[in-house]
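Example (one chain per record):
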Amino acid sequence: MQRIEMWRNITRIHILVSVACLVLLGAIYILGNKESLYRPVGFCPDSDNAWRIRDLKMQTGLKYDQPSTINGRTDVNAVTNWNAPLVWEGTFDPVVIDAIYKKMDPRVAVLVFAVGKYTRFLKSFLESAEKYFLVDFRVNYYIFTDNEKEVPEIQLGQGRNIVVVTIPGVNRWQEVVLGRMKWATTTIDKQIRNESDYLYMMDIDSVFHNRFGAESLSRLSAVLHRGYYKATLRDQFPYERRPESKAFIPAGEGDYYYTAAVWGGYLEDMYKLVKYCYMQSEEDAKNKIEAIWQEESHLNKYLLYNKPSKVLSPEYLWSDYDRIPEDIKVVRISQLVKNYAEVRPNGGH
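Predicted structure:
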């Protein structure tokens, strides 16, 4: 009887000690990870603390138009068949968008290439971007150029900077296009990864005309090519159709045709896509083939099988060559008219 009572006492002591140890270990873990309890808006609980769109919070007292479940755009489709937003003027409220995303405060990188005579487009691109592109957000413009002296002095807003990356000149415009992926991959690895959370690739021969804002942000955002967004059948898209190329897309497949002149996303998602385009282009070169539209062909293949989380309408890249149709209510950025034979190193061929 005495042994049984003693065994019970020992068991009680073991239980109490075990509970005390668990409580102590829990307290140590919480104290050691207390920063996870106070993560700022816009960050997911990833181990690398990478910037992400997360809590869609805004301040109280904000005045904006009441959203409707009945009224809205009826002339265009505003959602893809994989349920991603398809963004047009009239499908978002800029007051609400800015109130939400400015709280997240991402560091945005814009990569542009101004090689050879394309440096002439820098001033208009940068000045118009300062007026319309992610106004009041932090932005670094990374200018890849073979002529640093021709980078203009531009008055920039607070938290906005120009970073010049020197690269060699080329003899063919196709080399500029393909080289973009190589130099972007290298520079993201060496520098941009430590300075930015979000990344856009853009063509320098463009000018902003209206708001290009945080409604464009997502994990991976692609822009519909203005030439193929209406009634073009998928088999008529200018995909790479030669099976020998890594960019090959067979007949009967395809969602949309995306432009490679504007695309953006979380930095690591963009790094993965940029590096993919670079590596696939390198594989093509080994096989003595070049995709029909260079990195744009590889971009379209990637996005066919890795769907973008947001699709932007052609408002987000129009062209001064084309008449503006009724469904384009606002042109946010547009490619300039130019003499390709004069500005391209090999005469545009």
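Caption: The longest helix spans residues 2-32.
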